[in-house]
Specification:
This protein is of the alpha+beta class. It contains 3 helices and 5 strands; from the N terminus they run ββββαβαα. The strands form 2 sheets. The chain has a 3-stranded mixed sheet with strand order 3-4-5, with helices on both faces. It has a two-stranded antiparallel sheet with strand order 1-2. α1 links the parallel β4 and β5. It is flat. The two termini are about 20 Å apart. The model has no long low-confidence stretch (mean pLDDT about 90).
Length: about 80
């Protein structure tokens, strides 16, 4: 989902919520630093960012959905 000059994995614009799913490459220090820069940009643009590890999405999908719904509702 394009937001500014970045691509978010998913976004709920009405809730100003960015949802990121991080695979194994996100454990690399350089990648984590780039993710922090992106997250900071999203925050300055008025978005909240939530991140899930790929394992969470694969093994606990309902927990992820519950958190997304909770976070999306927090802006209402």
């Amino acid at each position: 989902m394009p937001i500014g000059s970045y691509i978010a994995d998913f976004a709920i614009h009405a809730a100003k919520l960015v949802i990121e799913v991080d695979g194994p490459m996100h454990t690399d220090e350089t990648r984590r630093e780039r993710d922090k820069v992106r997250d900071d940009w999203f925050l300055r643009a008025g978005y909240r960012v939530i991140r899930f590890r790929m394992e969470e999405v694969m093994n606990a999908w309902s927990d992820c959905v519950e958190r997304i719904l909770k976070e999306a509702g927090a802006s209402s």
